[in-house]
Design the sequence.
């Protein structure tokens, strides 16, 4: 019986496995190999293998600066989306109304607009004579425009907007699975609304927070279109830099090394993050 | 420990009138069951007492303290939920400590009280377990312990046995009742199970469509139901339609298709009525209130013999007879009952 069950499960994962190996593992492997090639001016890469690209990357303060900026932006976007998204998810989870489905659509609305269209809209909103600066100026609050376009701040704002659903949806699923009786039990035992939330609901929603945060962080770090269009040089992130290496400067081996370097940093952060959050959640069922 | 007063409570959901003028006085240490079919308002009544549902009209008092608009956390009550609602990320001891920490009970006293209550619910030694490591019955007792350890004024139980299997449920009935009497706590118990209400309660409040249909001791509810609905909801009953002819002392004479029958009933009953008899009160061959008919069915039930008799009027009445009674299907059978075992209900 057990053997039969195992066999069935094995066959069922084959399609996903083929996709994963064919479109993730193999390209990744080829990028790793590429990053070890020597540079060449006449071909994509030269003869022989070298670690020099990695050596250049880790000794270059300019690259470390951009890594730092990418991580700072990713962290800011993650924290802010969590702070903005949690109340929305909490409200939606407790909603018993026919407007609930309308609110769901509202929540995922950032994803319903094409990425490029949405980013152009942000250019209009953020630019020096755009909506925000125009409004502030006509209110007499500022004389000269605040720089938003081509800054890390502008990119951060736009990323928060797109990635909000990615933190709301996992949290919503998590919060909906928590029985309302638990909060009622907390209140009946004498705990205030706030204390009940902090001691009961919040700890039980850690899995949703963990999932949402990791999604948004990874998506922010790897976002390309938004920082490329809104970031300029001051808001340039690692993914933008990698594409510049590959496409603009045609430095494939160095660009591949940069991509692998960034992946390794992200992976390390995720591993540490999972360790820490697993500790925080060890008491959960 | 306190008395509890529900004074003319009304509750609306939009246009729906969920609770209609609920009045109830609960004595100190009394065990009251709210009994009724689903949707009768019993759980809503409990949630109003707990403070989870605002009361639209009327007043709620714990002793002499006005509770109508007090937040649930300030009502000083213990509540046991149908789902138990144990905090899954806390151990048994932490679940019990939750209410004590809120009340700022010193750690040493906290530990002593937790140990004492766990002893009471026969779960000493389970302090470090998580709820998921316990059986349903054990979780149930932890929920009970968590509600009792804070020594609340009132204990509220919302169908606490509904998720347990039948054998365990029977044990827990007596366990809860015994514990309640030892602690002497005023208790409101919501259930849709009439046998649960009968064996556990000091008094039963039968609810129907948001109103109190009857409030009385289990014996009163069972033997002197105020309405056809109450009679039908608690146990089995035979109901014969008739018209009141007059009174003979304590007895009411009712003209029915099965003949002229005599039974007890409320003071001011007249006109068209239902005459109710419990099947176990019918006796074969009894001359008093004798009704003769043909046996349609005789089902052996182990402890009793269930007999269904068709009267000449076409009405069927069922009787629980001695399991050894010699009854043949198709034969004639005369059943009678003592007048004090019959009960007349206005139609």
Sequence:
């Amino acid at each position: 019986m057990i053997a039969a069950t195992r066999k069935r499960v094995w066959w069922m994962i084959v399609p996903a496995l083929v996709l994963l190996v064919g479109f993730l593992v193999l390209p990744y492997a080829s990028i790793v190999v590429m990053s070890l090639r020597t540079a060449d001016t006449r071909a994509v890469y030269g003869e022989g293998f070298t670690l020099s690209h990695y050596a250049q990357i880790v000794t270059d303060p300019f690259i470390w600066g951009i890594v730092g900026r990418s991580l700072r932006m990713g962290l800011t976007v993650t924290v802010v989306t969590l702070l903005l998204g949690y109340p929305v998810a909490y409200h939606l989870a407790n909603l018993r109304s026919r407007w609930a489905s309308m609110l769901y659509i509202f929540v995922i609305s950032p994803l319903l607009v094409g990425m490029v269209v949405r980013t152009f809209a942000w250019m209009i909103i953020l630019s020096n004579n755009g909506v925000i600066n125009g409004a502030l100026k006509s209110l007499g609050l500022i004389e000269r425009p605040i720089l938003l376009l081509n800054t890390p701040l502008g990119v951060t704002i736009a990323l928060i907007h797109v990635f909000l659903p990615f933190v709301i949806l996992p949290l919503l699923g998590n919060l909906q699975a928590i029985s309302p009786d638990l909060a009622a039990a907390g209140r009946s035992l004498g705990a205030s609304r706030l204390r009940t939330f902090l001691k009961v609901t919040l700890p039980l929603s850690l899995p949703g927070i963990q999932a949402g945060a990791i999604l948004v962080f990874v998506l922010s770090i790897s976002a390309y279109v938004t920082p490329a269009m809104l970031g300029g040089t001051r808001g340039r992130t690692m993914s933008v830099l990698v594409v510049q290496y590959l496409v603009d400067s045609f430095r494939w081996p160095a660009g591949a090394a940069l991509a692998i370097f960034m992946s390794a940093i992200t992976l390390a952060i995720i591993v540490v993050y999972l360790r820490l959050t697993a500790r925080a959640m060890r008491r959960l069922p | 420990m306190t008395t509890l007063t529900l004074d003319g409570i009304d509750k609306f959901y939009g246009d729906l009138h969920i609770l209609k003028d609920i009045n109830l006085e609960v004595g100190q240490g009394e065990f009251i069951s709210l009994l009724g079919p689903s949707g009768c308002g019993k759980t809503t009544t409990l949630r109003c007492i707990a403070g989870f549902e605002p009361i639209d009209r009327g007043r709620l008092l714990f002793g002499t303290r006005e509770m109508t608009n007090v937040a649930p956390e300030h009502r000083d009550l213990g509540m046991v939920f149908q789902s138990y609602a144990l905090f899954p990320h806390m151990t048994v001891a932490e679940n019990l400590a939750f209410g004590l920490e809120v009340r700022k009970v010193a750690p040493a006293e906290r530990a002593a009280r937790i140990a004492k209550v766990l002893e009471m619910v026969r779960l000493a030694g389970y302090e470090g377990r998580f709820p998921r490591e316990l059986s349903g019955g054990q979780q149930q007792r932890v929920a009970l312990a968590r509600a009792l350890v804070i020594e609340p004024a009132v204990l509220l139980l919302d169908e606490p046995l509904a998720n347990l299997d039948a054998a365990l449920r029977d044990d827990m009935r007596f366990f809860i009742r015994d514990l309640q009497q030892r602690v002497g706590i005023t208790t409101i118990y919501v259930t849709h199970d009439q046998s649960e209400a009968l064996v556990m309660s000091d008094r039963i409040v039968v609810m129907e469509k948001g109103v109190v249909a009857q409030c009385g001791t289990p014996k009163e509810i069972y033997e002197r139901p105020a309405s056809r609905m109450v009679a039908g909801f608690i146990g089995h009953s035979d109901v014969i339609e008739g018209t009141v002819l007059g009174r003979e002392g304590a007895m009411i004479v009712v003209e029915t298709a099965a003949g002229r029958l005599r039974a007890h009933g409320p003071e001011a009953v007249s006109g068209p009525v239902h005459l109710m008899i419990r099947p176990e009160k019918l006796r074969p061959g009894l001359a008093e209130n004798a009704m003769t008919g043909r046996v349609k069915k005789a089902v052996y039930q182990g402890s009793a013999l269930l007999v269904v008799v068709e009267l000449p009027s076409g009405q069927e009445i069922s009787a629980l007879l001695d399991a050894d009674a010699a009854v043949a299907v198709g034969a004639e059978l005369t059943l009678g009952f003592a007048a004090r075992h019959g009960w007349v209900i206005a139609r």
Remarks:
- The first helix of chain B runs from residue 42 to 50.
- Residues 97 and 264 of chain B are 54 Å apart (CA to CA).
- Chain B has two domains: 4-223, 236-338.
